[in-house]
Amino acid sequence: MQPAGRELEAMNINSLLNQEQSLQEMHNHQNGQPQMSSHFDPVSSHDDFLEQMMSSIPSSNSSFNWDVSSVAGRADHAPPSSLLSQFDDQSAQLVSKLRQHQISSGATKALMLQQQLLLSRRLAGNGLQSPTGASGGESGLLQMPISLNNNGEHTDVVDGSLQSANPANDTSMQSLFNGFTGSLGQTANQSQHFHHPQNFGATAAPSMNQQAASGSTGGGTPAQPRQRVRARRGQATDPHSIAERLRRERIAERMKALQELVPNANKTDKASMLDEIIDYVKFLQLQVKVLSMSRLGGAAAVAPLVADMSSEGRSSNGIQTASSSDNNETMTVTEHQVAKLMEEDMGTAMQYLQGKGLCLMPISLATAISTATCRSRNPIATSTNPLLSGEAGGPSSPSMSVLTVQSAAIGGNGVVDASVKDATSV
Amino acid sequence: MKARTGYSTSLKQEFLKKWIKGIRIYSNFKKDMNILERKKAIKLSADLAIASTRNASTRWSRTLTANISKNETNKIFVEQIFSDSEVIKKEAPSRLMARSNRIASKKIWRRSHITQIKARKMGPYAVKARSIAKKLVKNRTKVLKSLVPGGENMDGISLIKETLDYIVSLRVQVDVMRRLASAAENSTRLGLSSKCSVHWLQGIFTVLDHWCAMVH
C-alpha cells in the first residue's frame, strides 16, 4: 500500500521524490546498457524498472520525504543541518549516477538529474561552490519552482526565465533550461509541449558530456527543488501516463481544498477522505431536512420528518434489507399518525404513543439513555436507524453522530420516538 | 482561498431573501397546509433558493432545479418564483458522451497495461492491496455521486469540484435556516407571534422584519 498511499497524498512533492529515489536506483541497474539511439526506447524500458523501484522504495526515504516536504513548504528557510547532510549524500550520489547515466544512455534522464542537481545547488543557499554557468542559471531557476504550482502558467514564466538566464553561456545550460521547460511543459500542457523534450533532448545529448565535468565539481546540495521536476516517464512514452498524472494532480489539488472545508479531514488517504466527505454531505442534508421541520412547523415533530427521510433514504440507497423496510413501514405509519395527532393536541398524541408502548422524550435525554444502557445493541431504535443500517457495514459512529446532529439542530426542544424495549429502562 | 467570510455573508442574505420569497408565494398559493406540507414547502423553497444563488453555473444547481420542476405542481410554483426565467442549460450530451468514451478507452488500455507490469514486478500482495484500495475509492465515489445532485455522469475531478461547491451551499443553507429557526423560537418565547401552529407564517414574517431591521 505504500506506493498507493504516497501517490494519493496531496503533495506532489512526495511522489516526485519517490521517483527520484527510484531513478537513482534504476541507474545502478542500468550501467551496462548500451546507448540507445532515440531517447524514447530507453525511457520505455526504464518504465518497467521505474515501476519496480517505486514499489520497493526503501522505508528510510519516507522520513526524508517528510522532511523535504516540510522544507519545501517554506522555501525561504534554510534547511536544518541534519537535512543538509542528508542532502549532501543524496546529491553526491546523484552526481555520480548522473555521470554514469550520461555515459550509458537516456538523455532525458540525464537532463532531469542535471536539473535536480542545479536546483538543489541553488537552494542550498548559494553558498556552495558551483560552476559559473550554474549561477546564471539559478536566477532563472528561481522562478521555476514557484511557477510549478500553477498549472498552465508554466510556459510563460519559464520562457521569461529562459530569456533572462541567457548569461548562462554554456550551451549545456541552455539545453538544460530547455529540457526543464520541456518537463514543466509536460506537466502543464501535455499536448503542446510534448515536442519540446524531444528537440531539447536531442540538442542536449552532445552537450551533456561537457556538463558532466562541471556538474561533478558542484558540492553537495539540498534536494529541495527536486520535487518539482517530474514527468520523466511522462516525457517519453504515452500521453496516457501524462494524462493520468495530470488527472491525479488535479484530483489531489481539489482534495486539498476539500480538506479545509470538511471537518475532521486530517486523513491523507483518498478513500478515507472520500468517506469523510460523504458523511459530511449526508450530515448537512439531514440538517436541512431537520431544520425545515423544527420550530417552523410549530409543534416540532421530528417523526414525520424522519419518516420522510427514511423513505427517501430507502429510495435513493436501495440497500435496505427486507426486515428493516418492514420496520420502516410500521414506523412510518405510526409517525404519520403521531404527527397528525400532534397537530391538534399534544395530549392525545402522547396517549397514542403510550398505547403503543412508546414515549416521547427530548433527544438529549434519549442520547443519554442510549449511551448509558444499550450501547451494544443497535442503540436507539429511532427511525433514523433504518436509514443508517442501510449503509453497508456502517459502524456505530454514524448512528451516534446522527443523533447528535438531531440534538444539535433541534437544540433540546425537539422530540424523538424511542421505542422502549426494556420497561425498566424508561 | 477566497475570503470565505465576506463571500458567505452576501450569499446568506441572497439565500434568505429568495427563500422567504418562495415561502410567501407558496403560502399564497395554498393556504392551510398541514405539518407535512409545510415542511415540504419550506424545504422546497430552501432548495430552490440555494440552487438559484448559483445562477445555473454548477451542475448540481441545475440538476436540483430540474428535479424540483419535474413535479407538475411544483413547476407552476417554480415559474412563479423565478419570473425572471432561469435558463436551465444542460451540457450537450454528445460532448459528455464523447468525453466519457475517450476516458473509458484510455482507462481500459491503462488498466490492462499497467496491471500486467505490476503483476510481474510487484508481486501478488502489493497488487492486491492496491486493487483493494482502488475498489474502496470507487465504491465511495459511487456513493458520493448518488449524494450530490447531478453527480451521476461526472468524472472524478469535476465531481470533487461540484462536491466542494455543494458543501459550501449546504452550509449556507443550514446556517441561515438554523438562525431563522432559533429566531422564530425566541420570538415565540417572547410572545411576539401568535400561536405558531396556525399562524406560523405570521410568526416567520414578524421575525424577519425584526431581523431585517437589525441587519439594515
From TrEMBL, chain A:
It comes from the Eukaryota. Residues 187-240 are annotated as: Disordered. The keyword Glycosyltransferase does not apply. SUPFAM superfamilies: HLH, helix-loop-helix DNA-binding domain. GO terms for cellular component: nucleus. Its main location: nucleus. SMART domains: HLH. The keyword Transcription applies. GO terms for biological process: root hair cell development. InterPro entries: bHLH_dom, HLH_DNA-bd_sf, IND-like. This is Transcription factor bHLH66-like. It comes from Olea europaea subsp. europaea.
Automatic annotation (TrEMBL), chain B:
It is found in: Nucleus. The keyword Aminoacyl-tRNA synthetase does not apply. Signal peptide: none annotated. Keywords: Nucleus, Transcription, Transcription regulation. It comes from the Eukaryota. Residues 9-71 form the IBH1-like N-terminal domain. One of its GO terms (cellular component) is nucleus. GO terms for biological process: regulation of DNA-templated transcription. Its main location: nucleus. This is IBH1-like N-terminal domain-containing protein.
